[in-house]
Specification:
By secondary structure, this protein is an alpha+beta fold. The chain contains eleven helices and ten strands.
Length: 384
């Protein structure tokens, strides 16, 4: 049903989009998406089938087994995957951005040679271990400690909202390695095997994102080899910041695809639902709601691919990333909210995907940088 334009895509990019679109229609029909959400099943079978097509390596350089493409292609894949199930795109994103781009940005050549071919082949899943019970938006307040012990570091601490760590091969673990300096200067990153002795993972019951889910994690005297240090010792904060724009871009692509799916659901329902002797799509109040939803989705897509091209060009785009993250996540919520209104009582049932969109959309205004924090960042870039 989608009537989107090509947004300046090349012929190769359009072919990729159509391939992913066909894949999602076949591999992630709405019935399966509802089952994954209801029964808390991560669609790992779909992930594996996707990996066989080579998409996991789309933005990994050819020398490491990838295709050497860019962020536009990453965005196309994530948008189309999210149309079927938002969490499917998140599975993809955590491998290709949290994993691959962390290694590409600040990993050693040895780490790249070891892990990037596995990620490109779809044989490696990653996660990010950042948030703590007392360090959310104040990310630099992390207290999980890593203390040097010969060739190893001993890690103790607690993390929360660690999505996908229970199925990950490695997690990017944010630790404090120097407690005696300013918060931002004493942070280091490690690439940790979550199956290591001393790591305890506990699933959290949540309103949304119930397929892959999220977890509490405790680290008790976990031994990590010094070779698993990601980037410079005590230089972790700078490394985290270098990947933020990429993370926010990924979230923009994901919510744009999900918002399109929510809009299409509402549009089809409005055409099919007959009240007062005619389809409710004939009533101007419904038409205006759908028009506003189209404006939101269209603008989200424009912002997303503008940001992708800036990232591909290597230009500074912190402000643009924050703007896009705020607009697209709030647009998804508005679309889902109006979709609930159009579907009425049926929106409250699992017979339609709208209630899942409403739940997932609420999270996206928080995850990856809350809207309030993004607005603070934008204000700072305005010199305020």
């Amino acid at each position: 049903m989608r009537t989107d334009r090509d947004f300046g895509f090349t012929e190769e990019q359009l072919l990729l989009r159509d391939s992913v679109r066909d894949f999602v229609r076949k591999e992630m029909p709405d019935e399966y998406a509802r089952r994954c959400d209801r029964e808390k099943i991560a669609p790992l079978d779909v992930f594996d089938n996707m990996a066989e097509l080579g998409w996991m390596g789309v933005a990994i350089p050819e020398e490491y087994g990838g295709s050497g493409l860019g962020f536009v292609e990453l965005g196309i894949i994530q948008e189309e995957l999210s149309y079927g199930l938002l969490e499917l795109a998140v599975l993809f994103y955590r491998a290709t951005v949290h994993g691959a781009h962390s290694l590409l940005t600040y990993g050693t050549e040895e780490q790249r040679q070891k892990y990037l071919p596995l990620i490109a082949a779809g044989k490696f899943k990653s996660s990010m271990s950042l948030t703590e019970p007392n360090a959310g938006s104040d990310a630099a307040g992390v207290q999980t400690r890593a203390v040097r012990d010969g060739d190893h570091y001993i890690i103790n601490g607690a993390k929360v909202f660690n999505s996908q760590i229970d199925i990950a091969d490695r997690t990017v673990l944010v630790t404090r390695t120097d407690p005696d300096v300013a918060q931002h200067k004493g942070i280091s990153l490690f690439f940790v095997d979550p199956k290591s002795p001393g790591v305890t993972i506990e699933r959290i019951d949540t309103l949304c994102f119930r397929s892959v889910g999220t977890n509490r994690v405790t680290y008790e005297n976990v031994r990590v080899h010094k070779d698993d240090l990601l980037g410079e010792l005590n230089g972790g904060w700078k490394n985290l910041m270098t990947n933020l724009n990429k993370e926010r871009f990924s979230l923009c692509a994901q919510v744009t695809g999900a918002a399109q799916a929510a809009m299409d659901c509402a549009l089809q329902y409005a055409k099919d639902r007959v009240q007062f002797g005619k389809p409710i799509a004939n009533f101007q109040v419904i038409q205006h709601k759908l028009a506003d939803m189209q404006i939101a989705v269209h603008t989200s897509r424009m912002l997303t691919y503008d940001l992708a091209r800036r990232l591909d060009a290597g230009v500074t785009c912190r402000k643009e990333a924050s703007v896009a993250k705020v607009f697209t996540s709030e647009a998804y919520f508005r679309v889902a909210d109006e979709g609930m209104q159009i579907l009425g009582g049926y929106s409250m049932t699992p017979d339609f995907p709208m209630e899942r969109h409403y739940r997932d959309a609420r999270l996206m205004r928080i995850g990856g940088g809350a809207s309030e924090v993004m607005r603070n960042s934008i204000a700072k870039d305005l010199g305020l």
